[in-house]
Amino acid sequence: MGLRKGACWQGAMGQVAVNLNGRCFRFNCGEGEEARLKELAVYVKARVEDLTREFGNVGEERLLLMAALYIADELWDARADARTEGTNVQTKTEQEKLPHKVAPAGNSNEPGAVSGNA
Predict the structure, then answer these.
(1) What is the pLDDT of residues 35-61, one digit of tens each?
(2) Which residues contact 42 (CB under 8 A, 6 or more apart)?
(3) Phi and psi dihedrals of 73, rounded to 5?
(4) Average model confidence (pLDDT) for the chain?
(5) Which of 8, 39, 55, 90 holds its CA 20 to 30 A away from the CA of 96?
(6) Which own/partner contact pairs does 30-35 have at CB distance under 8 Å and 24+ positions apart?
(7) What strand order describes the sheet that includes 23-28?
(8) Quick one: 43 exposed, middle or buried, by C-beta within 10 A (0-12, 13-18, 19+)?
(9) pLDDT at 84
(10) Which residue would you say has higher pLDDT here, 35 or 90?
C-alpha cells in the first residue's frame, strides 16, 4: 500500500506523513517505527509553534533552525544533568533510538492534511 498522490496520508507501514508549518513531509522508516517518529514529530511541531507564537513570522528556514537549536539545547542540558547526577548515561540507549535511518519520501505543500497530529 503506497501513499496516495495528492494527499498527506499516514496509513502505510514504514511511512509517516508529518505536517509542519503548513507543509506535508513524507518519511520512510523501518516497520514498527512509525509511532516513535510521529511522537518525535509532535514534539518538534510543538517547539516550532511555541517559537512562532513568541517571535512571529521570521521565515521558515530561520524558524526551523531556531527549533533545532532549542531542542539541541534541551539535549545538552539533559546530558549535563545526567553527568551531574553521576549516572553518565547517554541520552538514549541503542534500543530506544530509531534502529533504521529515517529518509525523506518526498514532500508536498498540503496544509492542514494531518492537523493536530504529526
Answers:
(1) 999 999 999 999 999 999 999 989 999
(2) 117, 118
(3) -65, -40
(4) 75
(5) 8
(6) 30/98, 30/99, 30/100, 33/98, 33/99, 33/100, 33/102, 34/10
(7) 15-20, 23-28, 103-108
(8) middle
(9) 87
(10) 35
| Rounded-to-integer distance, Cα 18 and Cα 24, Å | 6
**Helix, coil or strand: residue 15:** strand
Pairwise CA distance, residues 63 & 75, whole Å: 18
Cell readout for 90 is 547517554
If phi > 0 it is left, if psi is from -120 to 50 it is alpha, else beta; for residue 43 that is: alpha
Q: Bigger pLDDT: 11 or 103?
A: 103
Helix (H) or strand (E) holding 20, with range, is: strand 15-20
Q: All 3 cell numbers of residue 26? A: 513524507
pLDDT of residue 110: 39
Q: Distance from CA of residue 20 to its chain's centroid? A: 9
- State how far the Cα of 48 lies from the Cα of 60, in Å rounded to an integer: 10
